[in-house]
Design goal:
86 residues; mainly alpha; 83% helix
Length: 86
């Protein structure tokens, strides 16, 4: 999978999530608070984050100063976030 393919997937996801956070902040706050109280949700999200992070890291892990650096940082961010869930 090329960097442009990952960008084509990750970009719209970020756009939709960002707009949702701006439009429905109270709903997201309630969701996050409820989510943090359930240990099974935390483990499930940790596994998902680790898998997504590793897929992105394996597909594209190049540290050059261009727009695709966002993909690399997203992969590492997901992997580190998944690690912290555990």
């Amino acid at each position: 999978m090329s960097a442009s393919s990952l960008a084509a997937v990750i970009g719209p996801i970020y756009l939709v999530l960002g707009l949702s956070l701006l439009i429905y902040p109270k709903v997201w706050l309630k969701f996050v608070n409820d989510f943090a109280k359930d240990p099974l949700s935390m483990v499930t999200m940790g596994i998902v984050q680790l898998i997504v992070g590793m897929l992105i890291i394996q597909a594209y892990n190049v540290w050059t100063w261009n727009i695709y650096l966002i993909i690399t940082l997203t992969g590492w961010g997901a992997f580190i976030k998944g690690t912290f869930y555990f």
